[in-house]
Amino acid sequence: MKKLFALLLIPVLSFAQEMKTITATTAMVNIKVDGKLKKKAWKITPDVSPDVYATNAKTVTFYTDKGEITIQPVEGKPYDFYIDLNGKKALTRVQYEPTYIETLQRGLAYNLQDKREFPAFSYTPSSDANLQKLRKEFNLDSIAGKGDEVSQIKNLMRWVHNTIRHDGSSDNPAVKNAQGIIGVCKAEGRGVNCRMMATVLNECYLAMGFTSRYITCMPKELKFDDCHVINMVYSKQLNKWLWMDPTFEAFVMDEKKNLLSVEEVRERLITGKPLKLNKEANWNHKSKRTKEDYLDGYMAKNLYRIQTPAISSYDTETDHSHPHLDYVELVPLDGLNQQHVSEMTYDSGDKRVFYVTNNPELFWAKP
């Protein structure tokens, strides 16, 4: 009986062990992340319980003025400990958070057998009166130049980048077509967000006879504070869609400097194949963009889900210009939103219908 009691006591005592506690007399904590020390990187906050430190590092060490603790984060297994700040205990949690690339890799799987229907993609021809007016008003033929098709596509993208300043926090103008957006920016000396810049470029491409869409690139989360809108334009010369981003004057290439589509960039990010960003890529001519910050960081986050209007036309963003619009969203099988059809009616009375597909062949279909 005594031996049985002793055996039972061992797991009970183990279960009752308290979480580790380190002490501190000052609130600021230094943290070493994978060998790199960050001074005053964390503030002890006893009122927040637990206070979560999210990281994708392999090793994290917290240094107070009185102690230290080293954690090796494991996904799905948050590590809790206490920091005793002058008698007040702060429950602190180190939680592994996947990198954007890791999250994107989990969204690799699609379903080529998904035959759920959605409206066919269509593109307004350059003969449209509004597009003809746009072409003439901004002398787009001169801007595009007399070079080959790809050089014209790049020139138009660069012109939008140089004509409009990006400001992600700005309010959208009331008239959201190329003339309205450019006019407001000039009159008020201000910028617009990436969606408005991609709208202008899309209309310029259509006006010049290029098949184009603007696409909203979104993270996995259904509620988010940031996404990015770019353009996909079809090159007959190369027989493929091309990635064009007027916000950052950016396009993407492989190791042989072949221009890539959005689909190809996403696949290469997931599989680790080489990617190159054009050397001119920049934000408002104030800061350069590199492959690492633009693709590995920012766009890896925003290429999980991709949405586009079914019709690529003039003035699709202005209230009442298109009372009914259909959108199509490409979602991997790991996505959180798999509902095939959903609807939304805005305060303006405009109705938007959203379709989901898991089939990239249908979404990236050539025109």
Distance, first to last CA:
81 Å
Give the neighbour order of strands across the main sheet: 12-11-10-17-19-21-20
- As a whole number of angstroms, the C-alpha radius of gyration is 26 Å
Task: List the total number of helices.
Answer: 10
Total beta-strand segments = 21
DSSP strand content: 25-35%
Strand-pairing-aware structural class: alpha+beta
Helical residue percent band = 25-40%
- What number of domains? 2
Mean pLDDT: 94
Q: Low-confidence parts, pLDDT < 50 over ≥5 residues?
A: 1-17
Largest sheet: 7 strands, mixed
Give the overall shape.
elongated
Description:
It is a single chain. With 367 residues, the chain is of the alpha+beta class. It folds into two domains: 18-97, no CATH class; 103-363, no CATH class. It contains ten helices and 21 strands. A seven-stranded mixed sheet has the order 12-11-10-17-19-21-20. Strands 1-7-8-4 form a four-stranded mixed sheet, with no helix packed on it. The protein is elongated. 31% of the residues are buried. Mean pLDDT is 94; it is low at 1-17.
